Amino acid sequence: MKITLQCFAAVAALLFTGAAMAQAKPVCGLNNGKAASGEPIALGAVVGKTGPDDFSASALASQAYFKCVNANGGINGRPVELTIVDDQWNPEVAAQAAAKLVKDRKVLAMVGSSSFVECGVNAKMYAQEDVMVIAGVGVPRECFFAKNYVPVNAGPRVSGTVAAMYAAQAYKAKKMVCVIPNIPSLGNWACDGAKDWGKANGVDVEVIAVDPGSPDATSTMLQAASKKPDAIVLNLPKGIMVPMLAAAEQQGLAKKIHFVSSTPAYNVDVPKTIGAAWNGNFDLHLEFMPVESAGADNLNWKATMEAFGGKSDPRDSFAQGGYLAARIVTEALLKMDPKKIDRASVSTALRNVKGFKSDILCRPFYVGDAARHNANSSGPIAQVSGNGFKQVSNGCLMAADPELSDLREQEKKLGL
């Protein structure tokens, strides 16, 4: 075991010095080039693939990383088998999917999950069965308020809060409107971070909730503009956000009001779709460092996707989250005796994750044993520039959301 851990430490050091990036091949796991052939380690993921949007990118990136791990010695000889199940954005199907994985497949942990509906449905069952979920992406409130559910991303509340903070910092905005879909467990909660931060910092933030099924973009933008804000915070999925920007441009608001957004605006199609009016005029928070960044781990993520992912698998921030989730789990498993890996020991190992580092993240990541998890609570700000994006913030901004106070205390106890 000592030799294995020394080998693993050497590989990790190689990754973070960037020496491995001189090669086209990705670095993962034991990195010994030997295919794993022992008893498989069963892991699972629940994703919302078919439905209003495709949320499978995270799990696909986790799968690519585990394929790389399996081609390089596995978990000390044991291959990883990741089973991905589609919940179809249906709570009943989500419950069935998780039961299939946890109770029938008997997975040891969930990795790379990304679902709009499963957190609220399955969080209690995960706790009862002592299954840890290292999710690539969490969206609704329940994903960030469960003992056994650990999203790697920041989430819409943190993202919207940081976007509002940047508007106040960069544009001296004192009055804002935050626009959010009227969806249970997302609704006002995701904009209340900006609102609560505003109360403590002399910034007035009003919230407008829109019907996600039939949003009236023109009416919403006129309603927001009638509040005479200095900035409008869009905390919306891309499919709703783009028409809002089009309506704002048509009403002549693009040059009168500063527009900022949470992470969903960070999509390769957005700059071309929204047009020249928003060039240098639309800022957004990123949950991770830019996908174009040249950090060693970000380049390793891209190399992993090229070597082991499908050609059509997205290379976006959701995929960054899934890659990180798989790395977190892999590093925890490699520290264990491969003959003594079971659900209980895996859950303990994952709760003990502390100080996980990647240049894709602004700060070291941790899990811990708290009643909830939101370790990723910062990120840089990007701006639409031509047909792409450029980073405009000086480093990362930390969300000053009062709701995070309990986690800040936990971080102090963990020495982070």
Descriptive account of the structure:
The chain has 416 residues and is an alpha/beta fold. It has 2 domains: 237 residues, Response regulator (Rossmann fold); 157 residues, Response regulator (Rossmann fold), CATH 3.40.50. Helices cover 39% and strands 15% of the residues. The protein has a 7-stranded mixed β-sheet with strand order 7-6-8-9-10-12-13, with helices on both faces. The protein has a 5-stranded parallel β-sheet with strand order 2-1-3-4-5, sandwiched between helices. α2 links the parallel β1 and β2. α2 crosses α10. The chain is globular. The N terminus is likely disordered.
Mean pLDDT: 93
* Biggest sheet layout: 7 strands, mixed
- Unreliable stretches, pLDDT < 50, 5 or more residues? 1-23
How many domain modules?
A: 2
Total of helices: 13
Output the helix-strand order. HEHEHEHEEHEHEHEHEHEHHHEEEEH
CATH topology of the largest domain: Rossmann fold
Query: What gyration radius follows from the Cα positions, in whole Å?
Result: 21 Å
> Globular, elongated, flat, extended or rod-shaped: what is the shape?
globular
- Sheet/helix structural class: alpha/beta
Order of strands in the sheet with the most strands? 7-6-8-9-10-12-13
Percentage of β-strand residues? 5-15%
CATH architecture of the largest domain: 3-Layer(aba) Sandwich
User: What's the total number of strands?
Assistant: 14
Fraction in helix: 25-40%
